[in-house]
Amino acid sequence: MSELIEDLKLAMDRGDILVYYQPQYHAITKRLCGAEALARWRMEDGSIREPKEFIPELEDTFHICTLDWFIFEAVCKFIARRLREQLPMVPIAVNMSRQHIREMHVAGRMAEICDHYGIDHSYIEIELTESSYVESPDEMSLLVEAIHSKGFQVSIDDFGHGLSSLGFLGHIEADRLKLDQSLIQENCETERERVVLESILDCAHRLNVVTIAEGVETKEQLNFMRTAGCNLIQGFFFDPPLRELDFENRLETSLQQIFTEDILSIQSTAVAKQLLLDAVFTGYPLIIYANLTRNSFYMMNYENFTSQHCPSTGVFSELIEQGAATMHPEDRDLFKSTFRRESQIARYRAGAKSISVITRQCGDDGIYRRVNTTNYFVQNPHVDDVLVITLCQNLD
Ligand code: C2E
Ligand code: MG
Ligand code: MG
Is residue 273 part of a domain? Predict the structure, then answer.
């Protein structure tokens, strides 16, 4: 056994391996909503060794797993104590090295430890670094699947540290994407780089992945991440990694904070879009996107919209048939002739910006009510397809 691992085991026994907690804050409300557990090694003289001084060597051997399991259990113990004492608690993220792919029953062991301490699995989030996915994609997706199946959340750590590709987000069911500090520092400088960062955030959000900016140190970085729509913030601007007791004090004060800022002053596109959608859905409870050229559609359901699910998709011409069937018999021909794909495309080519009809629609209660259906022609710069957005408004 190497000297380091022997020292580590001794330090564990003596209680000199400590867990520091770095809080994570909601970008808009600045409320504390989670924390990351980070290992620290207390030396005999009381000084603290940082992970960069011992993690790389442990990573090179299998021994990093010993440390990870120790931290995992310490975090569970901590959460259990707070819950037992009925103190407020937030989910805690624990780092797990890629070396765990060489172990058996990783997810099962996590579940057993949590269950032993009687804490709900939703209190634990597992951080796996982006480079682990790049190096062992198949093993990693299996591990993520197993961890998920036990009810733990999964974060991709250090995104942007190396040669990043968002492609793997499509294959790995991650819940969170942690943007590496290097990405933030570089991307705050020029407009071009800002666009890249905003696109990464947008892509993650469309995949239902929560974004966290790591290493936010300045007010400028914070403001930029807020306006770019990043969900959560972790960094020295708010707090460094804190000793357990300091973190507990933070929990007491921060969870009581009330958001007092003018939401519009943030000038974030994400916030603005959400408000606009709220207003649009108040007037138009049903919105349909259709591609007339491809004969396809998807329906936007408001309740689900924020989670970005498109509940209903299908063939557009069949939708028109189905829609017509729910209408007053005298209105069906008008509806079908107006919204037939061919007639809509012809009107678009003739220069129409929108098409509108009022029909009587039968509700669940069997009563007919007037509905205004307006189709707005829209364009996407990348395709010539004829696209249309339908807004339906109840008039009675
Ligand atoms: P990480 O998981 O990416 O953790 C974030 C690191 O960024 C932490 O460094 C944190 O102190 C630092 N940090 C946070 N905010 C700021 C900021 O505003 N500015 C700057 N300059 N740095 C900031 P730390 O605690 O030294 O940990 C370094 C790395 O060591 C961690 O990076 C993680 O990969 C690894 N690590 C720490 N504890 C464990 C553990 O228990 N297991 C494993 N496998 N790895 C661990
Ligand atoms: Mg981490
Ligand atoms: Mg990181």
Answer: no
Q: Within this chain, do residues 291 and 260 fall inside the same structural domain, yes or no?
A: no
Band (309; pLDDT cuts 50, 70, 90): very low
31 belongs to a structural domain: yes
DSSP assignment of 255-304, as one string?
TT----S-GGGG--HHHHHHHHHHHHHHH-SEEEEEETTTTEEEEEPHHH
Please check whether residues 260 and 292 belong to one and the same domain. Answer: no
Q: What is the pTM of this model?
A: 0.82
Residues with CB under 6 A from ligand 1: 22, 38-39, 50-52, 55, 64, 67-68, 71, 95-97, 127, 157-158, 181, 214-217, 234-236, 241
- Ligand 1 pocket mutation pick from 92, 96, 214, 232 by most atoms within 8 angstroms of CB: 214
**pLDDT of 308 above 90:** no
The two structure tokens encoding residue 15: 């209680």
Domain of residue 240: give its range: 3-268
Distance 39 CA to ligand 3 centre (A): 13
Q: Are 35 and 90 in contact (CB under 8 A)?
A: yes
Q: How far from chain centre, in Å, is Cα 87?
A: 27
Instruction: Catalogue the E-assigned strands of 130-168.
Output: 153-159
pLDDT digits (tens, 9 = 90+) for 256-279: 778 888 888 888 887 888 889 889
Sheet holding 387-394, edge to edge: 312-315, 296-300, 286-291, 387-394, 368-378, 354-362
Task: Please report whether residue 294 resides in a domain.
Answer: yes
